[in-house]
Automatic annotation (TrEMBL):
Domain annotation Reverse transcriptase Ty1/copia-type: ranges: 3-66
Pfam families from the UniProt entry: RVT_2 (PF07727)
Protein name from the UniProt record: Retrovirus-related Pol polyprotein from transposon TNT 1-94
Organism: Cajanus cajan
Domain of life: Eukaryota
Length: 68
């Protein structure tokens, strides 16, 4: 999900982005026993890093232990 923060004059001041996964999709009789971690696909990460490099955007890596 990406969003642009606009300044007083309507110009883009900052770009905001976050990666959202759908880890809640489980089907009865199939997924209830298995456990897995929601992770981004390598292709998506490469695209985001290429975009950040192209736009000279600072980026940071974080490890989120507890989401809820």
């Amino acid at each position: 999900v990406s969003k642009n923060k606009l300044g007083e004059q309507g110009k883009v001041v900052r770009n905001k982005a976050r990666l959202v996964t759908e880890g809640y999709n489980q089907y009865e009789g199939i997924d209830f026993i298995e456990k897995f971690a929601s992770i981004a696909k390598l292709r998506a990460i490469k695209i985001m890093l290429a975009f950040a490099a192209h736009k000279s955007i600072k980026h940071f890596q974080m490890d989120v232990r507890v989401l809820f």
